[in-house]
From TrEMBL:
Keywords: Membrane, Transmembrane, Transmembrane helix
Classification lineage: Bacteria, Bacillati, Bacillota, Bacilli, Bacillales
Segments crossing the lipid bilayer: 38-56, 68-88, 100-126
Top-rank taxon: Bacteria
Organism encoding this protein: Ureibacillus thermosphaericus
Protein's name according to its UniProt entry: Cytochrome-c oxidase
Amino acid sequence: MEQKWSIRLIRFAAIFGLLGVFLGSKMSGSMDYSLRPIHAHMLLVCWLSVFAWGIFYKVYRVKYKKLVSVHAILSMLGAFGLTFGMWMYNLNPFNLNDTFVMVVFIIGGTLLLLAFLLFVLVTFFVERED
């Protein structure tokens, strides 16, 4: 179970790492740094945190396999939801209702917070190697 989620998390992280670097390059080229918070969150949350979780699952075995799936799904939904919500909040390119955009942003951040909390729990349920 951990191996399957490990590679999924790493692939997800790699895609967002590429998007974050592309966004940084675009900002630099245009000298418009208004999307810095989104760029930073893409690289820190979507790339670094999700990649680290993928490596964790590559190295460790977890006693309760359902926790791995729940954590990985929450991680990807939260990382995507937070950065997408942040993008929508800052740009609102589709002219959606401001309250709806704020709710999307909050839900993404909340899912990510839950993923971090669940990861703390997961670290206490690793199988010991004797």
